[in-house]
Predict the 3D structure of the following.
Amino acid sequence: MDELTFASELVKVLAWPTATILLATTLRKPIMGLIPLMRKLKYKELELEFSQEVHALKAEASPIIGTSKKDELPAANLKALSLVPLSTRAAIMEAWIDVETAATETASSFWNQSPDETMRNFPRLGEYLHDCKVIDNKQLSIYKKLQQLRNKAAHMEELHLSEEDAKSYIAMAYNLAHHIKTFTTQKPHYSVVN
């Protein structure tokens, strides 16, 4: 193989990799500028989905568990409401804690036990409350949807919800927790075994 043929073959082999590297180097800054926009687009779709789910749940929950105004919420939920301007995610997490606490206390009361982590981490806590007639089918559906929304808020890397959506979530969570707590104070004095 002579030098000319060798050079020709070398150019053929290196042409595409060289062109690709040159193109990537040239367009690096514009491409890097687009990556954050693509991530934001993904998050905005999730935020829109979350917002739509909150509105749908609000429409579903209003006739079932009622609605509350800010001045009707107890101190625990005022804490969640005070978090809304700072972090809608933290506000949602705080509101869910109230539901989870009420559910845990009520479920534990059937076994004459104090609420503990075992009951709090019970994956079918909502279904257990349903089986014990604490909540009905529609309230169980609301419980599960509130839990799913809380999980989405907890696990999204970046979430910017409207304050109105967070306040709606807090009101629905308060109403469901209030219903569950009310059952605890009015329940008959017998244990339910499933």
DSSP finds eight helices and no strands in the chain. Residues 28-65 form the longest helix (38 residues). Residues 38-42, 188-194 have pLDDT under 50 and may be disordered.
